[in-house]
Write a structure and sequence with these properties.
single chain, alpha/beta, two-stranded antiparallel sheet
Length: 353
């Protein structure tokens, strides 16, 4: 998960124009802001916008018995493999583990395989997105997504010599995959009328040039988005909404409203944060801005999906202190936080008609 992409292309430029400009950590200097809630930018200035509250009464009782402790165990099983860099044996072991896990729980697993080219690397690398479908016959679908590749370098370590330390990326991607591994226990008979896809992206972290270099990001989600757009009506289904999970599962997480998410999917933000408010889920904060990005814009795997018309929001704490550091280990994860996010998102999923 990162905040700056070089040469995104014409489609991304169109999106940025619609959003009204970006404030990125490693690009242009962000505009300072102390606003406690997102704003809608217009030609006349800024207008405060309240979230759209859910129309139905939210029950506090969990929809499913989501087990945060088991989710942490799943995260540990993935991290125990070691680094899972795209194209490596570690990644292959992880793929085998995940395919078996989801198939055993009744998911229909497909591999979206492709060759990716990175600027700093001589050879192309084989990458694989995993797509796990529950109720594949339903045309109206929602998706939950995360990435499962680990970064080749822990490039936020202050001492450059430490960049080569093993980086298992426990909260940065792995937590989202582990959360979906636990959710899969409950999806076969989940009380919703939409189909659910669990999408796991490769190549989000396949970057060798450091945080301010020229390497490309989001290789897997870009491929997924392109395939979705090119298939058009032939695919036979449509994603009505999507939720990306990243840097969310640690104790003390503050899940603020990410600004691309709000610009592209205001109603979805309102539904999720409104439910969180009803459930008194304290980690969800209806406010914007991070220390790393004061305007609240975070380039992440949701942006390519937004660019092809899928309303996707990023559930993220971009102030996570162990971001891209060797210290991002399983011990930083919280079963209680996993459960709180599950309570909010499964309640939201239940309301999809």
């Amino acid at each position: 998960m990162i905040v700056w992409v070089q040469e995104w292309g014409k489609s991304m430029m169109r999106f940025l124009f619609i959003v009204g400009g970006c404030a990125l950590l490693f690009g242009c200097q962000p505009m300072a802001s102390t606003a406690e809630e997102p704003v809608k930018k217009t030609q006349f200035g800024e207008t405060r916008v309240e979230p759209t509250k859910p129309t139905a009464t939210t029950e506090v009782k969990p929809v499913v018995p989501f087990d945060g402790v088991r989710a942490i165990k799943y995260a540990k099983s993935l991290c125990d493999i070691g680094p899972r860099i795209s194209g490596t044996d570690g990644m292959k072991k992880q793929q085998e583990l995940l395919v078996k896990h989801f198939e055993d729980l009744g998911g229909k697993v497909s591999k979206q395989e492709f060759l990716a080219e990175q600027k700093s690397q001589k050879n192309k690398v084989a990458m694989t997105n995993l797509i796990v479908k529950f109720h594949p016959d339903r045309k109206d679908r929602v998706l939950f997504c995360a990435h499962y590749d680990t970064r080749p370098q822990a490039d936020q370590e202050d001492n450059r010599k430490n960049w080569s330390l093993p980086f298992v990326s426990a909260n940065d991607g792995t937590s989202g995959v582990a959360w979906m591994m636990e959710l899969a226990h409950h999806l076969k008979d989940f009380p919703t009328k939409v189909g659910v896809d669990l999408v796991i992206f490769d190549g989000e972290e396949y970057v060798f040039s450091g945080p301010s270099g020229d390497d490309l990001y989001f290789l897997g989600s870009r491929h997924f988005a392109t395939a979705y757009r090119e298939a058009g009506v032939k695919r036979g289904y449509i994603y009505r909404a999507g939720i990306l999970l990243d840097l969310f599962a640690h104790d003390g997480a503050k899940l603020k409203v990410e600004s691309y998410s709000y610009a592209a999917a205001k109603d979805l933000v309102g539904e999720v944060w409104g439910i969180a408010g009803d459930l008194k889920a304290k980690s969800f904060k209806f406010e914007r801005g991070y220390k790393r990005s004061p305007e609240g814009y975070v380039q992440d795997d949701h942006v390519p999906l937004i660019d092809v018309g899928i309303p996707v929001i990023d559930v993220i704490d971009f102030d996570y202190e162990h971001w891209h550091k060797a210290s991002d280990t399983v011990e930083k994860l919280s079963a209680k936080q996993m459960n709180e996010v599950a309570l909010v998102l499964t309640t939201w999923l239940m309301k999809q008609k």
